[in-house]
Recover the amino acids of this structure.
């Protein structure tokens, strides 16, 4: 399996998606690209991209403009797309069969901005049976996304009203899943998404973790004992630090867990994601090389932070 191309998403982003500091006040359909008016920047809508979708996602207003919130969302989604596109290409070409079908599952899909944009920009123009599934617990979001996919003719999209944990054993999903995404999936939903991906032996896992309270709560519970015996407990003695250290430690444990299961892991900051504090992007590539050392390290880190009770969470 070939890995993703090492392009700089920001560079590519600036060149092909967004031109900064160039106010554009009119649409220019004859240029082949639709330029959408913004306060101080212009966003290119790519040829073939569904304007109806962008309006439905409130990325465009009815008259083809953007507001502050939608501009931020589009920027985030495009930016993330730069990371995911090479993974989809690699997943499609890693078998002998050119343009193999791929399956992507997006956990904690919400309004499915990510899934719809990926489908519109990548899946839509490809023949075959590639499919995107959105997993979401809120019934109304599932119905809305399904209705929108039907209306747009996006037949390779389905939405399941399931928790991430339930999706691990459902028959509604195929056995082989190529790419698993979880973008701001709340609390331990990211961990469930990792468990899902490991069970499915996904080729790629893309995570932008949300706040996770479980590790911080366990650090807090065991704090007195740690303070007595472990000088490193200073890292999480104050309540604010308990939360922040808990959050960082969670992602460290997730990375070790993925490496222990044979994945190569890269951790990147989503540069340009300035409106969100949760800007850590974890991309894991399945190398099928389980690492004993990562497993040992994981155990050691859990033991040295008093988190032995969370072994089940991070080992699978
Ligand atoms: C913060 S939103 C993020 C939505 C979307 N991924 C995005 O970034 O725009 C998190 C979503 O995950 C859903 N969610 C939370 N816990 C979940 C779980 N255990 N299983 C499935 N969905 C979950 C919530 O209902 C919510 O729609």
């Amino acid at each position: 399996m070939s890995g993703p191309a090492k392009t700089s998403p920001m560079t590519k982003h600036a060149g092909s998606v967004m031109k900064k500091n160039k106010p554009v006040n009119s649409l220019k359909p004859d240029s082949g690209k639709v330029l959408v008016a913004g306060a101080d920047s212009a966003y290119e809508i790519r040829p073939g991209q569904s304007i109806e979708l962008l309006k439905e996602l409130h990325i465009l207003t009815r008259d083809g403009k953007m507001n502050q919130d939608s501009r931020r969302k589009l920027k985030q989604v495009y930016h993330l797309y730069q990371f995911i596109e090479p993974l989809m290409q690699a997943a499609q070409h890693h078998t002998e069969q050119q343009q193999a079908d791929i399956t992507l599952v997006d956990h904690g899909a919400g309004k499915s901005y990510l899934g719809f944009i990926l489908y519109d920009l990548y899946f839509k123009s490809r023949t075959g049976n590639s499919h995107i599934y959105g997993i979401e617990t809120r019934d109304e979001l599932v119905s809305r996304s399904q209705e929108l996919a039907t209306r747009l003719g996006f037949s390779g999209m389905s939405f399941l009203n399931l928790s991430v944990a339930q999706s691990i054993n459902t028959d509604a999903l195929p056995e082989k899943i190529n790419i698993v995404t979880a973008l701001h999936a709340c609390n331990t939903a990211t961990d469930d998404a990792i468990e899902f991906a490991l069970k499915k032996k996904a080729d790629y896992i893309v995570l932008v973790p949300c706040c996770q309270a479980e590790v911080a709560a366990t650090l807090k519970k065991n704090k007195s004992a740690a303070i007595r015996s472990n000088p490193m407990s200073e890292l999480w003695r104050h309540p604010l630090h308990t939360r922040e250290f808990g959050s960082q430690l969670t992602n460290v444990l997730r990375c070790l867990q993925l490496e222990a299961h044979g994945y190569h892991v890269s951790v990147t900051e989503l540069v340009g994601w300035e409106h969100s504090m949760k800007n850590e992007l974890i991309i894991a590539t399945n190398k099928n090389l389980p690492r004993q050392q990562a497993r040992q390290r994981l155990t050691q880190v859990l033991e040295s932070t008093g988190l032995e009770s969370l072994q089940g969470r991070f080992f699978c």
Q: What stands out?
A: Residues 68-93 form the longest helix (26 residues).
